[in-house]
């Protein structure tokens, strides 16, 4: 691993000030579960990492309007074990149980999981289907975008250099029904070959991941719509194999959502 400088700012303002939009080798550091793997593999060689551990971006709460608000530095394990999440958004808690393993979930953060933009991640398609919004802050100010608009392609986001995800807000589930299913080719907590998130209510929201280069919304579930979807083959399966998996898991996810208790 190449040497690098580690900065540990004590505030969000200081952290943003340390990020240099013109220098892509300066990177923010949250949980580091994916970042460190990329550095060890030599894919990423940052000159400086800016730690977000002390900038105060943790916490989970339910707003007076019923939205779930989680700070970007909230760990996935904290989300999984949160009584508020289990009670109001049980689909999130269920999904997290097979997201990698508990050692990773103890360290990996919500903001890092979204900003990494690996299409095999479980949370981005689910949060997109739930209509979640991400609050983003940088030197130019603060903006809020739907989670589905965070992604531009494989490992690519719409975040500008020097911007950080600071918070995620998820609308109340209410009477909607939700499910997330994934097919892994090895253990249940492995990267999926295909993932499908379904939220049913006044508006049907279905997102596909792992088989596509980013969380992708399905506007229709008929054969013609599926045929037009660009499927990406990888180590987890060929494009043809994933297309067949998608047909099966889409039907299963819709059935599970219809029969969900929340």
Helix content: 25-40%
β-strand amount: 25-35%
Q: What is the ordering of alpha helices and beta strands?
A: EHEHEEEHHHHHHEEEEEEEEEHH
Which overall shape is indicated by the principal axes computed on the Cα atoms? globular
Spatial strand arrangement across the major sheet: 4-5-10-6-7
Mean pLDDT: 95
Tally of domains: 3
The level 1 CATH classification of the largest domain is: Alpha Beta
Structural class: alpha+beta
Describe the biggest sheet?
5 strands, antiparallel
Number of strands: 14
Architecture of the largest domain in CATH?
Answer: 2-Layer Sandwich
Rounded to an integer, what's the Rg over CA atoms? 18 Å
CATH fold assignment of the largest domain: Uridine Diphospho-n-acetylenolpyruvylglucosamine Reductase, domain 3
Unreliable stretches covering 5 or more consecutive residues: none
| Cα distance spanning the termini | 46 Å
How many distinct helices? Answer: 10
Q: Short summary of the structure?
A:
It contains ten helices and 14 strands. It is α+β, with helices and mostly antiparallel strands and 262 residues long.
Describe the structure.
The longest helix is centred in the last third of the chain and has 20 residues, at 239-258. The mean pLDDT is 95. This protein folds into three domains: 5-50; 60-170, Uridine Diphospho-n-acetylenolpyruvylglucosamine Reductase, domain 3 (2-Layer Sandwich); 177-258, 2-Layer Sandwich (Enolase-like, domain 1). Strands 4-5-10-6-7 form a five-stranded antiparallel beta sheet. The protein has a four-stranded antiparallel beta sheet with strand order 11-12-13-14. It has a three-stranded parallel beta sheet with strand order 1-3-2, with no helix packed on it. Helix content is 30%, strand content 26%. The protein has 262 residues and is of the alpha+beta class.
